[in-house]
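Archive entry. Fields below.
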Amino acid sequence: MVLNMDSTIPIYVQIAEWLENEILNGNLKIDDKVYSQYKLADMFTINPATAAKGLNLLYEEKILYNKRGLGKFVSHEAMTIILEKRKEMKLKGLLNEAVQEATRLQVTEEELLEMLKQIMKESKGE
Amino acid sequence: MKVIECERLVKAYCSMKALDQINFSIEENTITGLIGRNGAGKTTLLKIIAGFWRGTEGEVKVFNRSPFNNLEVSMNSIFVDDMMSFTYTLNLGEILDEAKAFYPNWDEEIAFALLEYFNFNPKQTHQSLSKGKRSTFNMIVGLAAKCPLTIFDEPTTGMDAAVRKDFYRALLKDYLIAPRTIIISSHHLDELEDILEDILLVDEGKKVLQLPVDELKEYAVTLSGRTAVVMQTLQDKEVIYKRDVNIDNCSVVVRNNFSHEEVKRLGIQVSPVTPTDICVYLTNQTKGAIDDVFNKS
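PREDICTED_STRUCTURE:
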């Protein structure tokens, strides 16, 4: 797991997304302690303030909770919140891009839907 | 707590002002990148903070004291650059041994471990080192001193890419173990930005901006698309830089303080601007653009 330093996504958002992935794939479970800002700074060679910003992002979204003096932990609702957020933000964003590209290429709605169905069928078939 | 406070600091050489009423402060235990073009006043500023030089007007406070000729400040700070001179009567190992007497927090273990890691022969003299090796050795002294205020003035001069990468990692690791206030001036902002907390951008002896790196990354965006379309969206925006791609298309760098959806709907491409590029655009003192020089003929 390496961060993409050239990406258009700010590092602290990438840190937050990486932690979300750790929760999604089960490496971090409910009530597990997550890495401290210093540990994250060391892991990714980033400033600890940047790492703290990533952690805070997840705390504000209630994916993590605080235990005073002990650090941040995975909340009970973490999984649901992440899944909802990803659907809302990422999937919609990707679809938006697809629609814009389709318009540029003069692909009709029917054609686009047909392509989508085809792709879903193919991915299920595998 | 503020470790450094500068108020209306001026440094004048004859009629030229290297620093012109510069105001800023630096918080304790942060890593700040001091960025600016050649001749912007970076070294002058750092030497005044380190207490090597005296300002002409205004006030500097380091650990709440005026740094010039102050023992307390010099004991608690170290200034590292490629001009650092060590006596030629001692070899590298002996220099590190002696340094212990000067710096109360000196970390002997780290000093010799780094000396070995970077393949130095402790019996060599400082004068016999190549430019890059000399910078590397100075960096070792700067890290091992563990001074509450550590100043690096272009520490990576002459270092190859691998050593620079090791240096940034070493600096960060050492900072995590022993947090302290660090200022680094550098022309390699792209390599350095991830380990920085704040950026202080200076130009012509003045502060242009001082921001957390994360905010600087979102400070500006590039709008590119058909010139006619882009131009009509610019009215309420702060333009930083403009470049014509060809007759019909242009790209404009603007302050990132508006909703992107609106311009995207017009078919304009919105892309981020790296901190390095923002710093270049904000300190553009050249007349026009480099293209203009060639277009004249």
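CURATOR_NOTE: The first strand of chain B starts at residue 2 and ends at 13.
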